[in-house]
Amino acid sequence: MTINDKIKAFAELGSIMSDVVMNVNNSFAKNYERTATSAFHKNGWFTREFTNKAVVDWGNVLKREKIESMAQNYPEIESEGGLNVGLILAGNIPMVGFHDIFVTLLTGNRVHGKLSSKDALLIPFFMEILTKIEPRFKDRIQLDEHMRFRDIDAVIATGSDNSARYFEYYFGKYPHVIRSNRTSVAVLNGEETFEDLQHLGMDIFTYFGLGCRNVSKIYAPAGFETSRFFEAATDFGFLTENKKYMNNYEYNRTLYLLNDEKGLLDNNFVILRETDDLHAPTGVINIQYYDHFDNVLKELQQKKDDLQCIISKGDVPFGKSQQPELTDFADNKDTVKFLTQLNNKVKDTI
What we know:
The chain is an alpha/beta fold. The chain has helices spanning 3-21, 29-42, 48-61, 64-71, 98-106, 122-133, 161-171, 194-205, 226-232, 243-258, 293-302, 335-349, and strands spanning 84-88, 110-114, 141-144, 154-158, 176-179, 183-187, 215-221, 264-266, 271-274, 284-290, 307-311.
């Protein structure tokens, strides 16, 4: 396959992704309905609203011009790699492992993907569509919850800090990209509008806050009126309808009350907790007040290896953290560069 063949196929898949969510009359819409419903029954975090959002966002980035623009950054991408790439896919939010599959196929390599049990239906559904669009992909895609890696040439794995250590141990002999826990933060300057804070709510609450691009901590100037945040967050009161989310919120609330923890604010679906901690459990947002902005910059630099993105007026715009582009690589590890360079090394040895 040429790079143009692959770009054309993925662009067509992107168009279908947008159509199935909008229930456009095509042969895939009904099957998508069944798949999305089954995905929710299997994993209660995958509500239809958030599953649809993930699929639509992928439809929006899989545009021919966007894929071509990305490919132009990698001259080596024109050649076929032919490597067997083991992928250990995350399942914390819908379709989160799709990007690794996309770059593996785009670089001309073969996918040996271990699906997360939390997201074992959506990705195979869209891969089946892809192979209908371009049948030559069929022999390049293997997906299974119980995938055993044999004869692989490289590994791209995503997991917790603990699982990442195991990945390093088991796959250290292969060229690899291994990702671990990261989170995102928002930095306020006190001049944010009501709309800015509403958009910040999207960065916090989309996917119930389970993604690495979700904001788990807010840096706010001393004297920031937290009532402004709670007022802007009212649009996300629908979270109370999800039992899994509320179970987490109520558990953490009870735990903090039993420990007589101070500095807690609560609006009945999210707890604002004053702390220096970076990571926050589900249903909780950490907040840290600052007097000098330079101290925040210094702290963020120290914690850069724990951060996925920073939401602020000068970084990722408010409301955009869950709309990454094709070149927004997880953990800032460029997997296209990794695979194209590996392809070239293999060819040099032949």
